[in-house]
Amino acid sequence: MTSSPHTPSPRLWIRQPLACADPAAANGVVIQDSRIVERLAAGQEPSLPVDRVFDASRHVLLPGLVNTHHHFYQTLTRAYSAALNKELFPWLTTLYDVWANLDEEQIAVASELAMVELLLSGCTTVADHHYVFSDALESAIDRQVETARRLGVRAALTRGSMSVGRDQGGLPPQSVVQDEARILDDSRRLIQRYHQPEEGAMITVALAPCSPFSVSRELMKATAELAKTEGVRLHTHLAETEDETRYCERLFGLRPLDYLEECGWLNERTWLAHGIHFTDEEIRRLGRAGTGIAHCPSSNMVLGSGLCPTLELERAGAPLGLAVDGSASNDHSNLAEEMRQAMLLGRLRYRPDQIGHDDVIRWATQGSARCLGRTDIGGLAPGQQADLALFKLDEPRFSGAENPLAALLLCGAHRADRVMVAGRWRVIDGAIPDLDLSALMARHQEAAQRLWRAL
Ligand SMILES: [Zn+2]
Q: Residue 299 in contact with residue 70, Cβ under 8 Å?
């Protein structure tokens, strides 16, 4: 949809969904250009004539899902034999040797496959944490930007980094650690070239050392300063395992959150992947600081890392979002399925009446948007971006479901029927128009096999 000074842009009514995550949009929403212009309560009609109507009477309507943490490249090492059945640190050291051989062609196809998979699951904003930069991967993020633009998906890309390799007592091989000045220069370059600070941004760039112990203290501090100067966000992994806590205490004499704070990271600019092993006092500090947590339930179960204290974090005031995490520890990139996992895992920690499908949908939409520092996505309010996910309940798994919204999680929705990003349909009838999915999968599989053979 485009506008001219004389003709108002067409108005599209997504009419009367079967059910909607936002009760204030029971009669649907009206879209004009890239935004929602009206949200209609039950029985309410659009205030102005509409040009087109999409009959949503067979669809459950959600704000587009927002993924807050991933490593797209890991789709090339799914279910990788040598890394199976391991905890985080041995899992990482096994896979670093494989990932050290990645090239840009592989990053491009892995990113495309991951973004496609997310989009088909109802995800309209994808975040990626890319921290493997060998000499063959200097333009990894540039390739991801190209891919996101081509698919029309909103992307929060993060310039990751590792500067402490095995020679300095770190986990990764030397070939994927970089000089710190080079990391900061490239971070600056990417922000200046791609980061859109404005409302409705399709591409944002954040800065993201792999973990506080994979870079030096100086780089952690310099990264926080650069993010502040450039007005971008900060991201890293934190408090994922007990091993990590012990490692930090040994290395720095501090628990991970204390170290993060000392480096100038404990503020509202930061969101952290995992956030499992916090004390009550640390949870209060995170809430006061407004630091976000990307909850990654499947990954936490696969690696046996623990249960994120989601409700305590949310009650303390910390933005809480949902994420699939990288595809070597999940190993799918399906955010709809991840909502089900979050609810089920939550039920192991909390009473059933404390965590419902609506809580998890809130995390995957509004909560995730807050983690990314955005108020223009994650909801269906007028003025917000027209990012929508519509699910049909036409598979055997849904047959007999009485509550359509609850059915998405309880019966296991995994594929959206329609997905809109910034007012444009990017998924129609469960497929991405103009994408040859079989050809993409063939290229991806070939890239994966080439990577395994390189070892
Ligand atoms: Zn991760």
A: no
CA distance 162 to 377: 31
CA 19 to centroid of ligand 1, rounded, Å:
33
For the purposes of burial, counting CB atoms within 10 Å of the CB of 198, is it exposed (0-12), middle (13-18) or buried (19 or more)?
exposed
On the 0-12 / 13-18 / 19+ scale of CB atoms within 10 A, 49 is exposed
Half-sphere exposure of 142 (CA within 13 A, CB side): 12
Q: How many residues does the chain have?
A: 455
Q: How far is the centre of ligand 1, averaged over its atoms, from the C-alpha of 302 (Å)?
A: 13
Q: What are phi and psi of 71, to 5 degrees?
A: -135, 95
Distance (Å) from CA 427 to ligand 1 centroid: 27
Q: Are strands 270-274 and 292-295 parallel, antiparallel or unpaired?
A: parallel
- Using only C-alpha atoms, the chain has a radius of gyration, in whole angstroms, of 21
Q: 406 CA to middle of ligand 1, Å?
A: 28
Q: pLDDT tens-digit profile of 404-454? A: 999 999 999 999 999 999 999 999 999 999 999 999 999 999 999 999 998
The CA distance from 108 to 104, in Å, is 6
Distance CA 399, CA 382 (A): 33
How far, in Å, from the CA of 435 to the mean position of ligand 1? 28
CA 165 – ligand 1 centroid, Å: 18
Q: Is the pTM of this model over 0.85?
A: yes
Characterize the bridge pairing of strands 52-55 and 11-15: parallel
Question: What pLDDT digit, counting tens, does each position of 256-295 carry?
Answer: 999 999 999 999 999 999 999 999 999 999 999 999 999 9
Would you state the pLDDT for residue 212? 86
Find the DSSP H helices in 79-232: 88-99, 104-120, 140-151, 180-194, 217-230
| 422 CA distance to ligand 1 middle (Å) | 27
Token digits of residue 406: 């609850």
H-only helix segments in 317-454: 335-349, 357-362, 368-371, 404-407, 437-453
Amino acid type, 29? V
44: Cα within 13 Å, side-chain hemisphere? 18
117/103 Cα distance (integer angstroms): 21
